[in-house]
Each structure stands twice: as C-alpha cells, then as structure tokens.
Input
Amino acid sequence: MADFTVDSPNVQYTREHIQSNYTYQTSRVEEPKPGKYKVTPVDVKVNFRTQRRKPRLGCMLVGWGGNNGTTVTAAVLANKLKMSWNTKEGVQHANYYGSVTQASTLCIGKSETGDVYIPFKDILPMVHPNDIIFDGWDISSMNLADSMRRAKVLECELQQKLRPYMEKMKPRPSIYLPDFIAANQADRADNVITGTKWEMVQKIRDDIRDFKTSKKLDKVIVLWTANTERFSLEEVGLNSTAEELMHSIRKNAAEVSPSTLFAVACILEGCAYINGSPQNTFVPGVVELATQHNVPIAGDDFKSGQTKIKSVLVDFLVNAGIKPVSIVSYNHLGNNDGKNLSAPKQFRSKEISKSNVVDDMVASNPILYEPNEKPDHCVVIKYIPYVADSKRALDEYTSEIMMGGKNTISMHNTCEDSLLASPIILDLVILADMCQRIEFKTESCADYQSFNCVYSILSYLCKAPLVPRGAPVVNALFKQRACIENIFRACIGLPPQNFMTLEDKLSKPLSMPTVTQEVGSVIPAVKKAKLESNGVHKNPSGIPIGIANENGTVNGTH
Output
C-alpha cells in the first residue's frame, strides 16, 4: 500500500473527509460564423469532499450461480485465504490481475529517480475486494461449489480447496420469465420466485434487507451478471416515465423484464444497481425513478475482450489519420452465455451493444468521415460447446490510407471469458462505492452535491456506456480511464495527468529546474512528499512539477 498525503494549502485532511479546493479548467467554443471558432478558456472553482471511512460493503449478484458469479466469488475467497495450487506450468498464487483498481498503477509525480507510480487503489480510500461480502440470486438452485464445477473455469485443485467454503453458498430464488431469455435455459430454472411482478419486486426488496441486516452491512450494491435478455419495448404508457413503469409493474404488464424489476427493487431500497449485460434494462422510467430517489445506476454490458481491443485500436487508427472502413468481428464460445446468445433475440441485444463502440471515435474526425458516415461493421457470435469458457475472437480491420491504399489488420484473440469479466465486476462495485462517497460544490452552488445518478464515470468498464441525458457517449478506452483517474486526482488536489514533461524538452535546461533542483542548487534528500499548490511544486516560471522522496515513495496516509 502506498501511504501518502498531499501537502498543499488547497487540501485538508480530517478524520471524516479529504477536502480539496480544485480549479477545473476547460474551454468553451463558439462558432459565430460557419468554420470560424472562438475558444475561451474557462476556470471553475470546485470543492471536493471525499469520505475516508470505508463501508462494510455487500455485493448481491443476479446470476450468482453462473460462470461469472461463481468465478468472482471463488477469486475473492482464494485471494482472501492466500491460496495457491498446482498447474502444469507450476504453482499458481491467487491474484487480481485484470482489475484496474487492484493491478494497475498511476503516476503521482516525479522524484529524483523519475516518475513515481502508486497502485491505483491507493489514490483514494477504496474498499478492498477481500472485504466484499457476496450473496445473490439465480434461477438454478445448485450450490456455488457445484456451479463452479459446472462452469469449468478454474483448475481442479483450486476447486477442491474452495469446495468446503462454496458448497455452503446457495443462491436465493430469482425471477424467471421465459419470454426474455433463450428457451434453452429452461432446464436450469428450478429456483424461481412466483407471484405477480409487483410481488417479485417486493421479494427482491426483502432479500436485500435480509442480506444487509443479517451481515450487518453499511451498504449493498447489486450487479446483474445473469443471462442476456431480449430488448424490451419502450413505449409511452408502458415505461416512458417512472409513474408509468410503476403502474405497469402493478398491473403485471408482460413487457417489463426481470432485469428492470431488479433495478426498480434496488432503487426503492436505495441500492446502486449495475447492469452487466447488453439488454435495455434502463428504460426511461427506470432512469427517472433513479433520479427521483438519487440512487446510482450504471451499465451496460461488461467490456472485457474483443470490444475493449476495438475501443483501443479504432481510437489509434482514427487519431493517426487512418480511416477504418470495414470492421468484421467474429467470436465463438461454449459457456452458458454463448448458449443463451444462440437465440436470435438475445443475440440482437449483444449485437447492438458491440456495434456502437466506435461511433464517438468516428465522429471525432470530420476530415476522414462525412456527416453520418460510418465504417461497415459486422458482429457474429456462435455457440461451440467444446470450447467452454475459452472464447475465441477473430477481427479484421480494413482501412484507407494515403493515395487510395488499403491497410488490413487481422487478429486472433483467445481469452478466458469469466476470468476477464470477474475483475471487471470487482472494479464496478469498488468504483461505484467510491463515487458514492465523493461530493462536490462550486462557487455558484453552496450545497454539496453527488454525481449524477447515471454513473457515466464507469464507462471504462462497459461496452455500451449509460450516460445522463444530453451527455456525450465516450467509448475510447484511454479517455475513459483518464476520466476516472483525473477525477480521483482532483479529489486529493492533484492536477490532471499530462505528458508534456517540458522540463525534459528545453534547449536551455537550467531555465527550468527539474524535480531535483532548486533555483541554482540541488534539493537535498526529501523526507516527505511535498506536492504544493493544487498538488504540485512550482518552479519560478509557474510550471508545476511534482516531487516525492528519494526512494520513489510518498509519505502520509489516507
């Protein structure tokens, strides 16, 4: 753990909070005449207040007995118990690789030896995944040990070590409405809630309260990792407002989906709800209900493999001035997700979430693309039982280059589907909790406010990001990660990360002291991280340069 404080008059630490006075810098653009732009820099004073106390956090998974649910539960147990097991490559130790919060780093400044990186999880006081308590629902009554064996994701020796813990875990009955998922799921549905849809909502609410009370939890976050549903109709009179939606549930309207019923139950219980599948759970009435109750919602669909690569590669091509004109994506998998997606209506939900991932990147370059012009884009998914959870993805990107030339990039990607999705589940839960503990106010608003209940800040982890009405959808992966990092940096008074490194690019180096120099002298060994003036040390020219101590670490505590 990186133990540090920010030493600045703009940052205060109390027992309860970290408070930061921060200047948010952006630009306002006007177009008085077509093609003529006026750009005005804008500075906004923002006061961030972040709760330091970590809650006792519970996570309820819809689809707890599925591949993702069993894998993430097993992974947390294995890490918590510091398990290791034998494989044909040697001894493997439990880890959280693939988690941006647990296994990536960020730069907080420079020391005498270069950039100083700390674990991402240490930038703010985040809950550790080992401390998350799991529960959930599933239409299958199988205990989690047997479900883990059915999933065929983890090594046999590890499963044997986990069995005594997981065989005691059994999912609560879940909502099963056959019209919304593939008919081939019927043989699993032996653990279902009966009654009207309003009674189902009340049962889910009872389950949340029972879990929270019995485990003495401060907070519960619910995440859907169950089967992909078909798209629901969105109609005036059915679900276009919160009032319509609640009325539709009470009259048992056929077009209200299980995932929407879970969302409504969570909102009424004040629990954040995250949709990890591609269906349109968040119909307008759900979003309005969440806004009325100020309960966070986020989604849609875990961004784990093929789509994550696409959001990197297309961003690179377009920003390099290369024009992608054809993107063809094929994948086959053999787990229950693939089985459910073999039904046309469920596949259509997935196709929609995968197909829109390049839109903002294409729209950002009017030199390459005319208005409304997009690359040809095709997504194919096939169910091949033999490959189980080991998904294969093949992609071909064809682009136009200089003088009528063509460039084609082809790639093959083999990935363990649930081992990629499980750390994303942890990140979504950890980051959702962290964002709930951040408040801010501006000069024009004296009262602290929370983030908009639609948590677009979690877009980095989602294929089809849900954003507040009127907000732009950002799919480019590096922009999405920078959003999270820079907001968290603002909470501790540090400026946004940039890569100018002007101090390394001068023809007259002595005109700008480096992090190891005062004006005309060398700084002695630094005993404490000293990040001044909005989290940076300023040289005489006013250009900020961060400093840290001589061994590349920083001191203090969150």
Observations:
- The two ends are 11 Å apart (CA to CA).
